[in-house]
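wait is this the right file?? whatever heres the structure
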């Protein structure tokens, strides 16, 4: 068994270091040491800038004014990289970095990129694009790293770990649904997000330890007291409500429960049941049996047919 450096160097700072190391290989002075890796780094520059930047010399600054990675290319081009593993943008980071770069009088052009090695939720993607940063997900960088024929061990270690993450997430297609764990939930949610415009997923902390949640199908009532939505909690499907405008929580819950009961009777649905809940601004009203959303073949999920069922259930909830 060959130990992998990045099984131990798992922090964002370690990934910062890898990016600094990779982009430094784009410098002309590194070409003679490993031309394959030099060309790979040039492709990375093109990916992160979205342009064919003719790169001769490059200076790397790590954590300069809190910017994860700053590449100064040919003395007058700046590439700002916000690097994430499992966290997301916070405290207006992306806009603050623009202010810092504006202080550099020698820079004639600046590129902004956001790289994340974990899967990226739809909400996070929208926020990054709103800040006018180029989104670089794991698959984009992997496509370049896999094409590199360098024998460099650091390159291979990082590529192998990222490929393993991808393969593990995609196992939701090859593992029995009953055997899914955290990574398979993420892979499934990431696939589902392509089909629902208002979908988002994230970790939701709770006193019981938290869960990975995926929510969509938001629908407000005419009296503006309630929003219904659907949410997976580690792939257990719930019908939930959000209480609006400081409405009475108990009354909103009772009305929502009655509305769902009536819906089930009208449509002859037996697989939606009252859920245990606590009064709050967000409440679970009903649990949905897997037969009403999951389609499997020999225990493996059929994504296309499952999406069809989920869309039908979403349309039904929109009538409440």
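ok assuming it is, sequence goes like this
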């Amino acid at each position: 068994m060959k130990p992998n450096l990045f099984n131990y160097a798992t922090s964002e700072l370690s990934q910062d270091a890898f990016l600094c190391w990779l982009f430094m290989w784009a410098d002309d002075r590194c070409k003679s040491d490993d031309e394959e890796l030099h060309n790979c780094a040039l492709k990375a520059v093109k990916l992160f800038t979205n342009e064919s930047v003719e790169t001769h010399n490059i200076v790397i600054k790590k954590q300069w004014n809190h910017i994860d990675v700053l590449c100064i290319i040919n003395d007058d081009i700046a590439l700002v990289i916000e690097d994430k593993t499992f966290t997301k943008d916070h405290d207006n980071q992306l806009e603050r970095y623009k202010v810092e770069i504006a202080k550099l009088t020698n820079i004639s052009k600046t590129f902004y990129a956001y790289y994340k090695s974990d899967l990226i939720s739809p909400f996070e993607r929208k926020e990054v694009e709103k800040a006018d940063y180029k989104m670089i997900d794991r698959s984009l960088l992997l496509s370049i790293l896999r094409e590199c024929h360098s024998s460099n061990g650091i390159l291979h270690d990082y590529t192998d770990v990222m490929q393993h993450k991808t393969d593990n997430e995609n196992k939701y297609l090859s593992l029995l649904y009953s055997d899914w764990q955290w990574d398979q939930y993420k892979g499934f949610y990431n696939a589902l997000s392509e089909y629902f415009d208002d979908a988002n997923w994230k970790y939701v902390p709770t006193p019981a330890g938290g869960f990975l949640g995926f929510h969509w199908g938001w629908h407000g009532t005419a009296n503006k007291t309630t929003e219904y939505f659907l949410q997976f909690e580690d792939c257990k499907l719930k019908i939930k409500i959000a209480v609006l405008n400081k409405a009475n929580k108990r009354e909103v819950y009772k009305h929502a429960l009655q509305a769902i009961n009536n819906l089930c009777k009208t449509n002859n649905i037996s697989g939606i049941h009252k859920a245990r809940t606590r009064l709050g601004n967000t409440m679970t009203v009903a649990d949905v049996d897997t037969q009403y959303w999951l389609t499997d073949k020999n225990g493996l999920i059929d994504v296309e047919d499952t999406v069809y069922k989920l869309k039908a259930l979403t349309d039904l909830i929109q009538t409440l």
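DSSP finds nine helices and 13 strands in the chain. so i think its the right one actually
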